[in-house]
Amino acid sequence: MLKICKLSIVLLLALALAACAARGAAPTLGKERSARADELYSEARHKLAMDDCEAGEALLVKAVKAGSPQAAFALSHVYERKYAENPSAPKAKEYKENADRLLHEAAGGNYAPAQYSLATRYKDGDFGPGQIQTAVDWYKRAALNGSSLAQFWLGYLYNLGEEVPLDYAEAAKWYQMAADQGEQASINNLAIFYCWGQGVPQDWAKGIALFESIKGTDSSDLWSYNLGVIRFWAPAPYGDKAAAVKAFRATLGTNDGYAESALGEAYAYGWGVKRDFKQ
Length: 279
Description:
Shape: elongated
């Protein structure tokens, strides 16, 4: 069985915000970005990296007022962190509202990481159920702004067709955009598409080449396992059951029993190895 890859969602803060507490009234993102916005944001990052939270946050506030969507995104994390520390605190509701507002403003300011983060929040139902189309809209904005993660997730959603209409061609389009940026999960899934002819013309050589480009580069050896599956079932001249068995052996214990199951089947039928029911 080939394994379609799903990325884990881990939103990493670019700044050292974990220890920072939100102080004072939350600013509103300036309507026009001033020449000082980027400079203020850069200074804020430096202060926060030096654990000078008070000075760093003050600079973030100035940067937000100057129109920096990056600063708005960073400051939204400050309020989100403060809310998470004590959701029952008297000002918790205010912190949460400020965090959500600043995230929306940063996304509206055409900042791709904020757009991707906001899309994920809508997908996960953080703003209420039934928001998948809003999530898709924000994923598309982030994807068109160059976010490979957003491109992957659009491909994945259309690939599964569980929350949006199943559309392999649309999935392939977004996977390709992410793959062009080296996003390995997208390369894996796109390789499967080429091998099976889903959403793209079937092309065993191209699919195998995509798998070969990423095998051995992930901790779970998923790419190598999938390449083994393709080698196992591909027609001549692309199939190579002995090479497939070798790939399965190399990935034993790393893929929830998939490699063990495939290897057992190979021994049971004598595919690529001498038939051996004990094995």
